[in-house]
Design a protein that fits this description.
The protein has one domain (5-185): Rossmann fold, CATH 3.40.50. Helix 1 (17-28) crosses helix 8, helix 2 crosses helix 3 (53-76) and helix 3 packs parallel to helix 4 (93-103). It has a 5-stranded parallel β-sheet. By secondary structure, it is α/β, with parallel strands linked by helices. Helices cover 58% and strands 14% of the residues. It has helices spanning 17-28, 35-45, 53-76, 93-103, 116-127, 131-138, 141-148, 164-185; strands at residues 5-11, 32-34, 84-88, 107-113, 156-159.
Length: 186
């Protein structure tokens, strides 16, 4: 079956991308593919520390610089032959451009935003890391793209400080309408 629609998600560390994409997977019944899951597995398969954020950032950046099309194809393959896919973790504008080059208007980007202090608290609680280590992670070039560049290309911006159920309702409604519009335009 051909890929009809990709609902891609971006946002900073600790903003709640995985929580939202997992909830949308449950609500919509669409498969979820994840750049983060792919990079963690690749790190593990190659004997690297898949829990080390710096390792993951370096590996993800290397994939983007050396073979962004292959990276995108491999991650999309996680969803099998489903017509609609939820895509977690767009962290590079090159990835978004590659998706849109391959699939044109079939890709819609949802950007999750929350104040830095909210995201930092969530991330430190979830990952049990110190603030100084988190600050180092946030200085990575990838994180700079997320905050400064990717929001400009978003089709929908969601306030990630709202309750998860509100976010799910808003994005599910957007996704259903966008998927129908894409299908009708084809």
């Amino acid at each position: 079956m051909a890929l009809n629609f990709v609902l891609a998600f971006s946002g900073g560390l600790g903003v709640g991308k995985s929580s939202l994409t997992n909830a949308l997977h449950e609500r919509l019944g669409w498969p979820r593919a994840s750049f983060g899951d792919y990079v963690r597995k690749l790190a593990s398969d190659n004997g690297r520390d898949w829990k080390d954020r710096a390792v993951l950032q370096q590996l993800g950046q290397a994939l983007v610089l050396t073979n962004v099309e292959g990276f995108v194809d491999d991650v999309l393959a996680q969803a099998g032959d489903a017509p609609n896919v939820i895509l977690d973790g767009v962290r590079h504008v090159e990835v978004l451009f590659t998706l849109r080059e391959k699939l044109d208007d079939k890709v819609k980007l949802v950007y999750l935003e929350a104040p830095s202090d909210v995201r930092q608290e969530r991330y430190m609680q979830r990952e049990a890391v110190e603030r100084r280590l988190l600050a180092r992670y946030e200085q990575d070039i990838t994180e700079a793209q997320i905050a400064r560049i990717l929001p400009q290309y978003a089709d929908l911006i969601v306030d990630a400080t709202l309750p998860l159920s509100f976010q799910v309702d808003k994005v599910a409604d957007f996704a259903k309408k966008a998927a129908i519009a894409v299908k009708e335009a084809a």
